[in-house]
Amino acid sequence: MENYFIIHGSFGSPYSNWFGWLHDFLQSENKSCYVPDFPSGVGLQNYENWSKLLEYYLNLGLITENTTMIAHSIAPVFVCKFLTKHKIKVKKCIFVCGFNHYMGIDEEYDAVNESMYFDELEEVKNYSKEIICFYSDNDPYVKYEAEKEFADTVATEQILIPKAGHINAESGYDTFEDIVSYL
User: Fold this and answer.
1) CATH of domain 3-182
2) DSSP H helical segments within 29-106, as ranges?
3) Mean pLDDT over all residues of the chain?
């Protein structure tokens, strides 16, 4: 059965930004959608803790070749690492403002993001045939070059949204209509 996972970023929550809106949209289309509440904050957010939660869904048989993974900010690299390390194939990945090996946001973000990074990023292409990356040219948290490099490494399709910031609520994205046509 086709299903969707929406994965928030650092210091995020399942229904911040456009995630709740997208969840409700998918539910209204009679699609199964999961929005896990990953541990957040220094000392709690790390690859190991996030993996444990996603493994729970995997063990329930909910992450399959019919799954679309939708991830924002640090979550795209987490998803790439998780799929690669666990050798899990999914239908599609939709990444928003993804990056890898980017330091300098601030001390707390660097501390929680660092364990998510990994060197075999391009291997995710073995686990998802379609990888769509959305990013902006004026993200206040992650430089354009870092988001573009991430997209160049993994994407089968890239969508640059000019002046969209971090494509989050702070940038005016309580909804995200552009993503719908890629679902």
Assistant:
1) 3.40.50.1820
2) 47-59, 75-86
3) 97
